[in-house]
Amino acid sequence: MDLGGTKIEAVVVDARGEVLGRARHSTPVKGGPGEVVKELYGTLGEAAQTAGLEPAKLAGVGVGAPGSVDANSGTLAHTSNVAGGWEEPYPIASDLGDLVGGKVVMGNDVQVAVAAEYKLGAGRDYRSVLGVWWGTGVGGGLVLNGVPWRGQGSAGEIGHMVVKPNGARCGCGRRGCLEAYAGRASLERKAHAAVKKGEKTVLFDIMRDKGRTRLSSGVWSKALKEKDPLATRLIHRAVAMMGVAIASVINLLDVEAVIIGGGLGSRLGPQFVERISDAMHPHLFITERKPAMHVAKLGDLSGAIGAALLAGPQM
């Protein structure tokens, strides 16, 4: 299962990574971790049903989650984009395991998604990759010389690299993080502020027409196609800041490829991946050896498939 800021995606896969069943539910906007566990279980049950299974019959259950994940204890802490957020470690794996009747393992959402892309998707031809997941927030994951690199547990948090000292306030409480400029939640806050100041935009009209309560990736995509000035300006700034952050990672680690995923990354597609590549260029030390740039091949399912890969050594 992939726990995101706006959705929970669950898939049932076989030993080859083939998807047998899937389900998607909205992430609770409030209620804290208890509500999140209930919704995770409901989504899992629906996915298992579409695969013709009971949840208790699954070989294992994996959850990819945003924030600080302790895989050994199965806890999640320091979330800002899920169900109102919480800071202290909460035993998601244990609580969900009690409902499922089996073992649940956890990993960082983007780290597991990048691992899935490395094994089954856009990263299959490379030994070292950086994954950047552009959605409600901005997350990252690394595979270095064939090994997923997690550091002490939170390596790859590119969204919290500072791209502008004393810059915009981020949801994490710090200033100048990439996520403060490129994360969809931050983009939405900026759009609301602009409208309050009298700026015109079709963003919220599109949101209402689509029956949404938030500015989803589809809303941003449609507004960009309609050449909405506010959407165009905010996304242009997001791309510029992503260029700064990704180029800095390339200068440090010199990986072979960059994979762009997440709701916005997958929705906006190859055209915007090329724009991010162009935004990186002025900041690269070795400009003649750019990394290969790809959109995540597994799309919205990369996080859930990566979480499934965590759950069973047979995969």
Automatic annotation (TrEMBL):
It comes from the Bacteria. It holds the Pfam family ROK. InterPro entries: ATPase_NBD, ROK. Belongs to the ROK (NagC/XylR) family. This is ROK family protein.
